[in-house]
Amino acid sequence: MTRIQANLVLLLAAAIWGGGFVAQSTAMDTIGPFWFVGLRFAIAALAVLPFAMMETRRMKAPPSRGEFRAFILVGLALFMGATTQQVGLLTTSVTNSSFLTALYVIFVPVIAVIIYRRHPHWVVWPGALMMLLGIYLLSGGAVTRLTTGDMLSIICAFFWAIQITLAGRYVMQSNRPLALSCTQFAVCAVLAMLIGAVIEPINYHAIASSITEILYVGLVSSGLAFVLQVIGQRYTTAPQAAIFLSSEALFGALFAAIFLQETIPAAGYIGCAIIFAAILLVELVPELSKRRNSRVTANI
Question: Residues in domain EamA (predicted)?
């Protein structure tokens, strides 16, 4: 898979996650956030498990103990990101949640520099700032008084950044995207349902009333999109992945406008154009630089 194809895979994952915001919001009319997170990732784990087993057979060995520990660490970051996002949706809008969650576009390259001493391509920094500006305009060009849900969405962005950074590292080290996906889903599901069993009431009516949202988010937004994420990240860097994945804010606002009648302000359309310009910038500049360097090397 080329880097361009990998980034398009990440863009598809972002579009799926954008639709997932709507399902995540409407589901909580009848079910609590921890049970919703637990059930969605339990379904995702079961959906990916057969493919993870096929991957293990193809590689002729199960993941090592060290790889499992790494996958569990990714699952812990996923659990923290998913639960803070889901609880935050109780007291903030889908548009605000998608905007604030996308702050990981800044956190990811910072984490990469601090932890791995790995500096991204220079274009990532202006691209990240353009993404933030675009997302800011998409939200109306003004941030009103922050609610508890908004604060949780900011915390969520930090944990998503950790999950993106760790997933990119460990999928490249292990070459097991499906085993990583299945393990992180299972860890997240078990932890969320344990907490849900203690603090949230649950009954069959609640599950039945939100089954459509649970199945969509479990099979498509979790099972498919997170697998696309770890597959795409095998062929691109974490900072570039963050740029493409953060476009979920654009898709989240779009789907919220269509299905929840949340409005996109006039400035939002300018924001959309800036977001797509940032995506093109991050995609094209490294490719053009690589080709120019290749020509220079060939002429020497």
Answer: 7-139, 148-282
